[in-house]
């Protein structure tokens, strides 16, 4: 899930609730804010993302918008490479094709 979160954040700054909605639109229906925020906190502690407060356009409390750090961009590239390798291997197994 962390790699998917990094990929969504790469698209542009996003706050937690918006992130959960985007993930749902990508096909993760069970993703809730409650499951997103602990992951965002961990990604911040690992210095993969950074959060900045912005005024809410609706006049409500400020929202924390997340963006990738340089380390986050590198980690996302690693995730994409690992996912490509894993999905290729799984496809070979389910299609009965060996290397």
From TrEMBL:
It holds the Pfam family PadR. SUPFAM superfamilies: Winged helix' DNA-binding domain. Residues 5-76 form the Transcription regulator PadR N-terminal domain. Transmembrane segments: none annotated. InterPro entries: Metal_resp_DNA-bind_regulator, Tscrpt_reg_PadR_N, WH-like_DNA-bd_sf, WH_DNA-bd_sf. PANTHER family: DNA-BINDING PROTEIN YIZB-RELATED, PADR-FAMILY TRANSCRIPTIONAL REGULATOR. This is Transcriptional regulator, PadR family. It comes from Kroppenstedtia eburnea.
């Amino acid at each position: 899930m962390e790699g998917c979160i990094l990929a969504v954040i790469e698209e542009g700054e996003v706050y937690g609730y918006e992130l959960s909605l985007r993930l749902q639109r990508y096909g993760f229906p069970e993703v809730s804010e409650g499951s997103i925020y602990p992951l965002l906190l961990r990604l911040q502690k690992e210095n993969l993302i950074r959060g900045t407060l912005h005024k809410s356009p609706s006049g409500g409390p400020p929202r924390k918008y997340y963006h990738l750090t340089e380390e986050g961009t590198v980690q996302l590239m690693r995730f994409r490479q690992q996912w490509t390798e894993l999905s290729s291997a799984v496809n070979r197994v389910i299609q009965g094709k060996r290397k």
